[in-house]
Amino acid sequence: MWKYILKRLLLMIPVLLGVTFIVFFIMALTPGDPAAIILGDQASAEALALKRIELGLNDPIVVRYFNYMKNMLHGDLGTSYKNQISVAQQVWDKFPNTAILAVAGIFVALLIGIPVGILSAKKQYTVVDNSAMILSLIGVSMPNFWLGLLLSLLFALKLRLLPSQGMGEGLIPMLKSLILPAVTLGTGAAATVVRMTRSSMLEVIRQDYISTARAKGISEKIVTRHHMLKNAMIPIITAVGLQFGLLLGGAMLTETVFSWPGLGRLMVDSITSKDIPMVLGSVIFMAVMFSFVNMIVDILYAFIDPRIKSQYKAAGLKKRGTAL
Amino acid sequence: MDEAFLRVRNLTVHYKTDDGTVQALNQVSLEVREGETLGLVGETGAGKTTLARSIMRLIPSPPGKIVEGSVFLENRDLLRLNELEMLKVRGKSVSMIFQDPMTSLNPILTVGDQIEEVISVHNPQLSKDQLKNKAREMLELVGISSDRINEYPHQFSGGMKQRVIIAISLACNPKLLIADEPTTALDVTIQAQILEMIGKLKEQTNAAMLLITHDLGVVAQNCDRVAVIYAGEIVETGTIQQIFKNPQHPYTIGLLESIPSLAKKVKRLNPIAGMMPDPTDLPVGCKFNPRCKLSVESCFQRIPPLKDLGNGHAVRCFLRDKD
Amino acid sequence: MSETTKVRSLGGETWRRFKKNRLALIGMVFLLIMILTALITIAIDITTHNSFYNNHVIKQNLRLRLKGPSREHIFGLDEFGRDILLRMIWGIRYSLFMGTIAIAMSAVIGGVLGALSGYHGKITDNFIMRFMDILLAIPSMLLATAIVAALGTSLVNLLIAIAISYIPTFARTVRASVLTIKDQEFIEAARALGAGDGRIIFKYIIPNSLAPLIVQATLGVAGAILSIAGLSFLGLGIQPPTPEWGSMLSNARTYIRQGWHITVIPGLGIMLNILALNVMGDGLRDALDPHLKN
Fold it and tell me: Is residue B224 within 8 angstroms of chain A, CB to CB?
């Protein structure tokens, strides 16, 4: 097991290097002279040249990339062009807010998605199933920023039940202000989870081992919980892992709609003000988080699926022949 | 003693599909006596598995529906039990061995867990240790070392998996064992081993068995009596002797003629012409009439009744009616 | 000869199955109407040299701003007094056509990469797929945002950003189907008859891996429309006063207190388009591969 986790961790390194390089490379394509952005229009040519050297802009991109990575390992993501604040500090400040939102969104998605998906599969082709499928289709098709606008229109402006802007101070106000953004972010994911859970359950329901389980005389409830759900979980976990990436992307939109002070909004604001180090820092941070979540998903597999686990069993265990 | 303890009467099962109603079983009746092995023989799609699943009440529904009939197990009609009572029958009084061992075990549970599960459901008073011991015992019984109890199905070969399934099905000493083509998916060399083991264990526990197969050789070696099923109807039943030495139904005769034999010198095998009829559009009258070389007018008008020829031999054919 | 008849009958069979799915059929008809409408608006712009566009779609009329739906303006007027219905109609092209163009670009690039990867295997495969893995490790919306942020907000940059972010999905889909087809016996038979790589790829592998690609593309267009709208909403896509639906919503956000209609209607438009593409994509998948249907 540890061997498997270690392997997954090692496999993450080249992916992370690749991800950071691609993002770094893309951001380096930005037109305009960073030195000019920092020093303003009135700066003299000499001052600009000095600043460029200071920023290392004259080095080839690979060198700049390695310097950036070296600094990153020390927790330094550069300095904002706009206000000279450390990017790492800013990102680190905003990240918890995005994490809260993303986790709450996933929570909403699972809370709705898994039970509805199971019900839908067990009652395939009934009214329940058909309405769940139509609702989930609508859910997948709805732009989540629009849903956010609709929700704030209804719950904040019309009914005046929940706040729709910003993040409340203190636990209860914070939770109250979290509801609408979390529902907004979670609905699309919930719809995907419903569809995934349903098809995965339908796949499992057909399996012979479900018949075996039923033939043992165990109740349908236990067959569902013990035999179907556990097997169906593997693709569901994958879907949820992938949803997390979409959620991070969606967080930018949701955070903008609800003025939620997270990484996504920081990024959008930085793009608007051409604060490249800030954009770079937040994109890299999010991409790294996403890779990390994917790795956790892969490790979770191994806990559920013995076929993966046994491949990485401690080498001390002797290999048994499978012949009769 | 001779009293049949499983009596299936007029069992009719339909599946509703997009293409129409499939009449999977039509007025099927058969009996299994205590300790006896009844072979149920027929082609793919004849309704063998549907019959097995109907006895266990495990027809997928929808689309399947038991339209009429009764399944008496020791004077209790299983079709009239409520679901809770039926749970106590499954795995305990009647258990089932499925066709494909490769897919019949849950891949994410250890074989031990899967054997223990059936024992614990029917013996809730047993402690965890007792369950484990019983599971080990069952593994040894089917010829698997009990220290493999914590291994997963993928670590076993097909034949070994089928042994595990047999262990599961016999763990609660069932009175009736339904084996649905238990060896079809296995290598020929392993088939004999598995069948021999099932036979031995069945004898030890004095269970009766319904052995479903399309292989007449398997029937000849393992069964006491045979029922031949065609397109959802029993066309002939009798003892091994009666069926193999004196087959009466043209379909049974056709089946027997299509087996290669070393003893008889035959130039060519004699396959039955034609195909099984479309189950959504069965022929009127005798279901076998499109393929039958001997069919007469009445074969196309009515379904022939199952005629008792004496000594437990019965056949569903108008030709034998006239004799 | 026999090959073309086979392909045609396969298409006919697919259409027969597709027709049975009423929802998918409705989706398709809806999309056809949308495409037709968009083409008509383009024709109007060309024949009137944009004068209709400038006078009715772009021109502001501040006296009537935020007026709700009425008989004259069934969807009401926006924050600058422009008719929302007209702006919605003129906006179809941005969602539908740009989504389609972006996906077509990434389907071609991704398809070629996937085919190369699946067909050649070994080093090519490893190189391409590792690169795709890396791209996939960046959430696509994030990747698109980064690209737009670096290149600047313009129509073309938006297209490039979205096209790039979808390449890995297509590469993977095509690679998977090529891998399954490659080892099938009719390929070996063709090779035994002396067919070269190019002939095998274009005559056998591409036609046979088209089905999953088409399904993926249909669903991809839905995703691309969502991305375009999302980026425009953030102010990173198509800029006002162009009547793109996402950017219409972006303005609506500011005026959400003054009029609900400017929020509800553009979003509804986006949703219906995506819904139509999704049901059509599902229908196509079921029709092309009946085994996948539950």
Answer: no
Task: Report CA torsion sign: C226, C128, A285, A28.
Answer: negative
CA distances from B54 to A270, B18, B92, B306 (A): 67, 22, 16, 21
Q: Is the pLDDT of residue C61 over 90?
A: no
Q: Please name which of B180, B188, B189, B315 lies closest in space to residue B249, comparing C-alpha atoms.
A: B315
pLDDT tens digits in sequence order for chain A, 324 residues long = 777 788 888 888 888 899 889 989 988 888 777 777 777 777 788 888 888 887 777 788 888 898 888 888 888 888 888 778 899 999 999 999 999 999 999 999 999 999 999 999 988 888 999 999 999 999 999 998 999 999 999 998 888 888 888 888 888 889 999 999 999 999 989 999 999 999 899 989 888 899 899 999 888 888 998 899 888 888 888 778 878 877 877 888 999 999 999 999 999 888 888 888 898 898 888 888 888 888 888 888 777 777 776 665 543 333 333 333
Strands B20-33 and B4-17: antiparallel
**What average pLDDT does range B218-226 have in this prediction?**
88
pTM: 0.82
Q: How many CB atoms lie within 10 A of CB C50?
A: 13
Q: Do C229 and A153 touch (CB under 8 A)?
A: no
Q: Please list, in sequence order, all residues whose beta carbon lies within 8 angstroms of the beta carbon of residue C280, skipping any fewer than 6 positions away.
A: C24, C27, C28, C31, C218
Nearest CA in chain A to B157: A322
Residues of A in contact with C141 (CB under 8 A): 246, 248-250, 252
CB contacts < 8 A, A to B, total 93
Strand-pair category, B37-41 with B208-213: parallel
Contacts of A213 in chain B (CB under 8 A): 106, 117
Q: Is C124 on the interface with A (CB under 8 A)?
A: no
CA angle C52, C55, C57 (to 5 degrees): 80
- Run of H or E residues at B260: none
Our CA-based measurement puts residue C187 at a distance from the nearest CA of chain A, in whole angstroms, of 31
**Whole-number Cα distances in Å, C128 to C109, C205, C219:** 12, 19, 23
CA distance A315 to chain B (A): 16
Exposure of B53 in the CB half-sphere (CA atoms within 13 A): 21
Considering only CB atoms, A142 lies closest to which of C148, C236, C271, namely C271
Nearest to A306 among B53, B103, B108 (CB): B108
Cα separation, A233 vs A261, whole angstroms: 34
Burial of residue C105 (number of CB atoms within 10 Å: 0-12, 13-18, 19+)? middle
